[in-house]
Write a structure and sequence with these properties.
Glutaredoxin; 4 strands; elongated
Length: about 140
């Protein structure tokens, strides 16, 4: 909840500032500015990608050994986006958990990262890695498939 309120405040602040800046220059500049604010809002929205929870991910890894890679992420994180991009097609084999949409997932990430919500946190066969190199993650995903 807290992250959604902060997100909304940030997007509204950006839109207000952009409105004041563009109003002084020219009205037609409002189109790309509104587009930029909308894309930023979508990119960082805390509820984006809120499908799998920590509990479901834990159960899936126990029930199906082939689904052994869990990636904890959050919207707007450039490191998470970079990992997703560098994993290529193998990324669909991982279980992705949005820590902003699941408080239990955020608590787990804090428990393995000395109290910090550092993402991406990747769990391979029960062992957590913080912001790992994509090569071993990709290797774990391709052997699981």
């Amino acid at each position: 909840m807290r992250s959604r309120i902060l997100w909304l405040a940030l997007v509204l602040l950006m839109a207000t500032m952009a409105g004041f800046i563009v109003a002084d220059i020219s009205w037609w500049l409002m189109i790309p500015v509104v587009t930029l604010v909308a894309v930023y809002g979508w990119w960082t929205y805390p509820g984006r990608g809120a499908g799998t929870t920590h509990a479901v991910a834990t159960e899936l890894t126990r029930a199906d050994p082939a689904r052994r890679v869990v990636i904890y992420w959050r919207p707007g994180c450039p490191y998470c986006s970079g990992l997703r991009r560098r994993l290529g097609q193998a990324r669909s084999e991982a279980i992705w958990v949005n820590i902003w949409a699941d408080p239990e997932a955020a608590a787990y990430v804090r428990s393995v990262n000395s109290g910090n919500e550092t993402v991406p946190t990747v769990v391979i066969d029960g062992e957590a890695f913080t912001n790992p190199d994509p090569a071993p993650v990709r290797a774990a995903l391709t052997t699981a498939a």
